[in-house]
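Bench log, entry 3. Co-assembly request; chain sequences pasted below exactly as received.
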Amino acid sequence: MSLSTEQLLDRARQGDVEAFAAVFEQFRPLLHRIACRLVGADDGEDVVMDTYLKVWKAIPRFRGNDALRSWLCTATRNCALDYLRRRRRESERVVHDDGGADDETPILERVADVRAETADRRAERLDVGGQLARALRELSHEHRSTLLLREVDGLSYKEVAAATGVNIGTVMSRLFYAKHRLRKILRQQEIAP
Amino acid sequence: MITPRDTPLRQALRQAAALPEPRPADTFWQDFKARTALTGQETPGRLVVVGGSLLSRHWVLAAAAALVVVGLAFALLRPTAAPLQTAQMQTPQAPALSSVQEVEVLSEYSSVMIVEDIENGGTVIWVASAGP
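Structure output for the full assembly:
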């Protein structure tokens, strides 16, 4: 007889790792996509692992599982931000003459852009999408991650909002402007009509 | 071949910003188990609502502000009984036993003074004449 999610969560609260995995495996592809969009494809797995370790540690205090999916999106975002902060501190220790960073720029944008190029450059190597990948890089990090999470990764507005730390109205606004800007760039490149 | 020009934006984006597949589940959870063996779980204490927004700082502050506003409004607008009673005592509605409708004095150079004694229900009419 299979256990319900609530029963599995109860077992996870008592330290049952198998039960924890049984509940949370279904969310792993979603968290992986969010993490990759926020910190870059190479480090997405690490962020997902950090997220699950934090959830595991705190699971005895959690109540209710109705909003689990959205809550996990928020948790992934928080772990991604922690990861980016750590990475930035490490890169500052290594590179002392990095004078290009603007302190008023959000940390997510400052750090993620560098690593986010990995996926984009990979796309550029392909015949298809090279110009689109370049156009994507011209978008701000907020617009790009919102656009990709929604249009490519298929997250709901609510999940995108949780993953990017803004409300649903802002998600919709960012989507609109991201598409508008993307079309404008592509038109300049004579890709889009 | 799919090209950005010929396909909808979504399909083109999917190709341009493709992500690697996540690790296989068994290796991921094996790694996870190894790591959880090094870290314990928190003991159940403070209640955390999944979704978190109900206990967030903003909600607590907004609820406190709303309580203060409601409290002030209640204190200012509620009916006060004591002052009304005092006002009623100051203006007793005792029925008048007599009343003066009109006073006519035929004597010239006279003056009339009317004193109504509401408390005892009487009226005194004082007429003074300065004439011959």
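Residues 1-7, 47-54, 83-91 of chain B have pLDDT under 50 and may be disordered. The two ends of chain B are 134 Å apart (CA to CA).
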